[in-house]
Write a structure and sequence with these properties.
Number of helices: 5
Shape: flat
Number of domains: 1
Structural class: mainly alpha
Radius of gyration: 18 Å
Largest sheet: none
């Protein structure tokens, strides 16, 4: 009997890959806005303009993020903090692990 991949599982996996790809585009846009903020002081405005544009809304939607005004404000706040996405993500992961270890020890 031949082995085969369930078409539904394959499509779901493709969808997950596509969402991750678009999420990477969102992270790159954040990093670009942070760079703009350091150079020109207009990073939050740049990310807001992008997120409200047709392309930005499409990318956010494809990444699984609802492109509403609350999200735009969150992106602006993130850019305003000036922490690159790679640093923020690694710090967040580190904090999550520490919290889990403390919960386990208690």
């Amino acid at each position: 009997m031949k082995d085969f991949v369930d078409g539904t599982a394959f499509n779901a996996e493709q969808g997950n890959r596509a969402r991750k790809l678009f999420a990477a585009v969102v992270l790159a846009a954040l990093d670009d806005a942070i760079s703009d903020d350091k150079k020109y002081g207009n990073g939050p405005e740049q990310i807001a303009r992008w997120a409200r544009s047709r392309d930005g809304r499409e990318v956010l939607s494809c990444a699984g993020i609802d492109p509403n005004e609350r999200v735009v404000e969150g992106l602006m706040e993130f850019v305003g903090k000036g922490v690159r996405t790679s640093v923020a993500l690694s710090r967040e992961e580190s904090e999550r692990r520490n919290a889990a270890a403390q919960a386990e020890a208690a």
